[in-house]
Amino acid sequence: MNPSLPTRIRSLSAVRCTLQNITIRPIETQEDLWYAVQELTLTPAQRDFVNPPGFSIGRAWLWPEKFLPCVICRTDGTRIGFIVFSPWLAEGDGVSFGYMIDLHHQH
């Protein structure tokens, strides 16, 4: 049996989860959860196009073998966004994701 999507993503090395000065890591602390659900700010136009992070985190709680919510951070630890990985719904083996960058870090 293949490992679950969250297990496969968690097994990636830090090098594979980092690009230049940005890194992605699973939500694992209360501070990460608070940031994603309460502090992350989107533009009004963006709010109409995405599920709020709390919705995605709830899905991951219900189906932990399928969904992996993560924070997007600078390598200094500053949280700047949210991303959720989920199973690819089309044919074949793949991963879907949806992400959002905090209004204060968009440019």
Structural features, described:
- This protein has 107 residues and is α+β, with helices and mostly antiparallel strands.
- 28% of the residues lie in helices and 28% in strands.
- The chain has helices at residues 5-10, 30-39, 44-47, 53-62, and strands at 18-19, 22-26, 68-74, 79-87, 95-101.
- A 5-stranded antiparallel sheet has the order 1-2-3-4-5.
- It is globular.
- Indicate the proportion of strand residues: 25-35%
Please give the order of strands in the largest beta sheet: 1-2-3-4-5
**Cα gyration radius (Å):** 14 Å
DSSP helix count? 4
Question: Which properties best describe this structure?
Answer:
107 residues, alpha+beta, 5 strands, globular
Concise synopsis of the structure shown:
The chain is α+β, with helices and mostly antiparallel strands and 107 residues long. It is built from four helices and five strands; from the N terminus they run H-E-E-H-H-H-E-E-E. Strand 4 and strand 5 form a beta hairpin.
Topology overview:
Elements: H1 5-10, E1 18-19, E2 22-26, H2 30-39, H3 44-47, H4 53-62, E3 68-74, E4 79-87, E5 95-101
Antiparallel strand pairs: 1-2, 2-3, 3-4, 4-5
